[in-house]
Amino acid sequence: MFGSKENFVPISEAKTEEIKIYPNLPGWVNTDQIGVNMALIHRLTHLAGIYPLIVTGSNSLETTSLVPEITGVDSQGSASASFKAAKTLVPTHNYRLSEGDDFLTHDRRWSAGLITINNAEITQRIRDDNRFQGDIRSSKAWSYYLNQTIKDGINNLGSNFLVKGLDRGDWMANLTVYGLAVSFICSSAFLMNVEGYLTNMLGGFYVGLKLPTLLSEILNLASNPHQHRERFSLLPGPQIDRSLVLRAYSYLSGPIVKPIS
């Protein structure tokens, strides 16, 4: 697995300029035995277009619950319940995006991300998890659920920002680029011979793909050349390919959180 040999720091010390983790874990959890791979989180947030990332824990959010199904009401108005129950599943995290400068194109904008860990829900899941014998003090159990939760949070932040984070100006610019690319391809069919059609079609499509990147670099060069970094993508507009790479790399890259001694 990628990143499996990297250093893990205790979760209580997991803070850099770009990433800050405030786990607020329950007092019975030994935070010195839970390690975080900060280098891996940096790579994932770079792929996701997230800067900075804040991860915080809450012990007061709602948890998964079972609600008995009502089968009827007697003559005195009392409800009778069956042996069936509806399960209201609560996620182990919430997430929120906060985008930056609206004057920049989408591939230049970076979004601040917030992941709120539902520690109460994780406690309940550990208690019900036979793999950890319900031991809510287990560093192994907490590492397992925190790893899953933080990875899912980064993936959700990245997917929403990379694919859905375009404003009206971004859509207009990219529709124009696609239109120019199509026009170039169609005109090539008439101006060039049949044998050269495929070559010109691919060349035109490639120019259409790269034009937004070139334009964004030129437009933003004079403003904040060091503050904003361009995110490469093969596709203008929604960066679907980058989102897929993020999820694949997240899956293959090993744990973000694991037990340490």
Describe the structure in your own words.
The chain is α/β, with parallel strands linked by helices and 261 residues long. The protein has two domains: 178 residues, no CATH class; 54 residues. It has a four-stranded mixed β-sheet with strand order 2-4-8-7. Helix 1 packs parallel to helix 3 and helix 4 packs antiparallel against helix 5.
List keywords for this structure.
261 residues; 9 strands; 3-stranded antiparallel sheet; alpha/beta
Whole-number count of domains? 2
Tertiary shape: elongated
Strand ordering within the main sheet: 2-4-8-7
The SSE order reads EEEHEEEEEHHHHHE
The tally of beta strands, per DSSP, is 9
Radius of gyration: 25 Å
Topology record:
Blueprint lengths: L8 E2 L8 E4 L11 E3 L1 H11 L1 E9 L6 E9 L5 E10 L4 E7 L11 E8 H9 L11 H26 L3 H24 L5 H25 L18 H13 L4 E3 L2
